Structures are given as C-alpha cells and as structure tokens.
Amino acid sequence: MKLGKVDTVETNGLVLSGRVDALDSLRGIAALVVVLHHCSLALGWYNYVDHFGIRIVLSGAGSVILFFVLSGLVLTKTYLEKDRAYVPFAIKRVIRIYLPFAAAILLAAALCWQLGYAPVSSAGDWFNSAGWHRPVTARVIASHLVMNSIDLDNAVWSLSHELRISLLIPFLALAITRFPKATIAGLFAVSVVLSPLSHNLQPHPNIQNYVTSVQYVLIFAFGAMLVAHGGAIVRHLRQLSGLKLFALTLTCLAAISTAPNSILPLDSLSQVFYLIISGAGSAGLICLALTPGWFEKSVLRHPAAIYLGSISYSLYLVHLIVMQVLVRSLHDLVPVWLPFVITPVVAIGAAQVFRLAAETQSQNIGRRAAAWWTGRRAVAEEGFGTQKTAKRPPSV
Predict the structure, then answer these.
(1) Residue 2: what are its φ and ψ, rounded to 5°?
(2) In a designed cystine with 252, which of 2, 163, 284, 373 is the match (CB 3.0 to 4.6 A)?
(3) How far apart are CA 42 and CA 57, in angstroms?
(4) Looking at 28-42, 117-131, 378-392, which range is the least confident one?
(5) Structural domain of residue 75, as residue ranges?
(6) Is 85 helix (H, G, I), strand (E, B) or coil?
(7) Which residues lie across from 2 on neighbouring strands?
(8) Rounded CA separation 156/39 (Å)
(9) Local confidence band at 38 (pLDDT 50, 70, 90 cut-offs)
(10) SS3 of 126, please?
(11) Cβ(79)–Cβ(89) under 8 Å?
C-alpha cells in the first residue's frame, strides 16, 4: 500500500543523509535527563526539581516531548525518502518499538517476582507508588503487554502513544507537506476540543489513553513540519552570532521545561497550552542541534553524547527496573540515598547489555520481516502480471 507521491519543498526542507549524530546525541541526552529526573524524584527532591532553574536542565516531561518531536522528524523524513510503502514501514516500526518493550516488561516481571513488591519504607513515596506494588500474575503481565498498565516499568507510559502515532506518520507526512498550516491548525483544534472529553473519561483510563494519543499527534506534527521547513530555519540560524545561538538554546530549553510534570492525561486547556510551548521549544532545539556552533560541536558531537544516543531507547526502558533492583537489594546494607545515586551509572551499563540482547535483535527482525513482506508482494505482483500476459489473446 502506497499513499502517493509527496513532493517536499527542496528549498526549505532539511537535508539529512543517513543517521545524524547530533539528533542521536540529543535523544541520548534527553534519555539521561529522564533517568536523573526519576532519581531526583525518588530521593524526594520535589521542590528542587520544580524550581525553574533546575527544570530547565532536568525536565523529565519535557524530554519525553522532545522524544516525540524527534520521532515526528525522523520517521517522516525516513518515510518520504524511501519507497513509501506503508506495510514495510509499519512492520519495522512496530517490531522496533514493541519487542524491546515486551522484553523489558518480562524482565521486570521476573525480577519483581524474585525480589518482591512490598513497599520499601526508607525509599520514599514516589518510589513505592510509581513502581512495583502488586503481585506478578499472568493477568498483570498480559495487561502490561497490551500497554494497559505501567507499574512494572513506569517509564513505558509514552510507548503506547509512540507506537500508535508512528502508524499514522505516513498519513501525517502527506498532510503536513501538502497542507502544513491547515494540518497544524486542525490538530491544535482537535487537542483543545478533546481536553474536556479527556477530563470526563477519567473513570475509563484506557479509553482516555487513546484520546491522549490523538492529542499528541500535534507534537509529532511539529517534527514532521521541520522536514518541509526546517532547512530554511537552519540556514537562518547559521547567520547568527555565537552569543545569539547560546541565548536561543537557553530559550528553547526554558520552553521545553514548561511541559507539566503530569502530561498524562491532557485533560485541561492549560496542559495543552504548555505542551505546545514545550513542543515548539523542542523543534527549536532540534534546529539548533543541526546548526554548526558550540552546542552542536562541543556537546552533541562529544563521544559520550553519541554513545548515549546509541543506547537511548534501552536506557529509557531499563533505568527504572535497575532502580527497583538496586533499592530492593541494597536498602538494608547501604545508606538510603546510595542506590538512587548509582542508578544512572548502573543503568547505562545495563542499557548496553539490553541493547545488544534485545534492541539490536529487534531491529534485525524488523528489517527481515519488512524485506520478506516486500519480496512476497513483489512475487505476487509478478505472478499477477504473468497471469494477465498469459490471458491476453494473441495478436493477429
């Protein structure tokens, strides 16, 4: 199934060849920010985390919004630059997201069953409420695997939205490149209109979650919009001085940090408003990441940032599992703060192992499955063409 040819505006579009280290690094740093944000919450540093000066560099919610905008950009660019066949695109994306997610859930379930789910009194309210708190049963595992529960690995709440909206990217790409203003305006209106509906759906969280996915399409659209118009923005940024670029970077970080800590569900107009500001800041930061300057050269091209980019998805998946294991294993042996302090370091090591064992294998499976479908389709079309030729009457 193809959705038709989409002609992007070459003069305004982003020119990205292959993987871009700057974007991978940006995703990796955002994943580390989520880890540090969760560790600070577990340590009870609520007041510090909510302080604007800290939020500007430690906004977990803002980092997730940045993930969404990056996904909108990268997936739209990938879809438009390749053969635009929907089914292979969907196969690769579903397998790329879902198999590592399922592996993380099964790992968390096994460890929870082994280490227990009883509250750790010394660990604080956030750790006990956001993590393991009920027995592991087949029903609990099934609920997680269909993305209806998150307590085994709280960070995975965003993946249901990521997966659903990824499947809409080809349609979004078509709309955003042909009718950019109308698409953004329409998605904004939908997000606003759905806010009171989402509020009324609080007794039905699973339905409410689907409504929230529809609202988040707007944030992915910001990334898709950069495909058509990001090139013009980057060319303009290249004309600015280093001081102006630095000021713009701080401005974008401040905008990203306005994302409310509770961005699920989006059941008020203020949440939608701040979400849009955070999405716009994310789009701006992505453009700055693609602009030669101190941020791109000194931060995003640093080997540590590039490495974080290579393990970003795995780090996002496993860091809360690592935290649970460390706290439950060590809380009687070491000071209460120590497991939380060492969680980022241990999580990075665990993410590397998980990437090799689960994430990379999932990518390979996705590529093979998409290639199989493409080959199967080609054979079917060839057979159909041969059949038509055979039925054609001989010419006289």
Answers:
(1) -115, 145
(2) 284
(3) 18
(4) 378-392
(5) 21-379
(6) strand
(7) 85
(8) 16
(9) very high
(10) helix
(11) yes
Virtual torsion, Cα 238, 241, 242, 248, nearest 10 deg = -80
The CA distance from 258 to 265, in Å, is: 16
pLDDT of residue 18: 57
Task: Name the β-bridge partners of 85.
Answer: 2
H-assigned helices in the chain = 21-42, 46-50, 52-55, 60-81, 86-115, 125-130, 138-145, 157-166, 169-178, 180-200, 205-237, 242-256, 269-289, 294, 303-310, 312-330, 338-354, 360-391
Would you state the pLDDT for residue 17?
57
pLDDT > 70 fraction of the chain, expressed in percent and rounded? 87
Q: Is 299 a member of any domain?
A: yes
The radius of gyration of the chain from alpha carbons, rounded to an integer in Å, stands at: 23
Residue 394: inside a domain, yes or no? no
Tokens 């700055």 correspond to 288
Q: Is the peptide bond before 344 cis (omega within 30 degrees of 0)?
A: no
Number of domains in the chain: 1
Highest averaged pLDDT of the listed ranges 7-21, 232-246, 301-315: 301-315
Report field, pTM of the whole predicted structure over 0.70: yes
The predicted structure's pLDDT at residue 44: 81
Cα–Cα distance between 181 and 349 in angstroms, integer? 44
Residues contacting residue 303 through CB under 8 Å, at least 6 positions apart: none
DSSP helix/strand/coil, 137: coil
Distance CA(258)–CA(254), nearest Å, equals 7
In a domain, 142, yes or no: yes
pLDDT tens digits, 49-64: 666 567 777 888 999 9
CA separation for the pair 325, 368 (Å, rounded) = 35
- Whether 76 is in a domain gets the answer yes
Residue 149 DSSP label: -
What does the alpha-carbon distance between residue 387 and residue 379 come to, in Å, rounded to a whole number? 12
278: closest CA among 60, 22, 20, 54?
60
Which one, of 229, 216, 215, lies nearest residue 181 by Cα? 229
**Plot region of 191 (φ>0 → left; ψ -120 to 50 → alpha; else → beta):** alpha
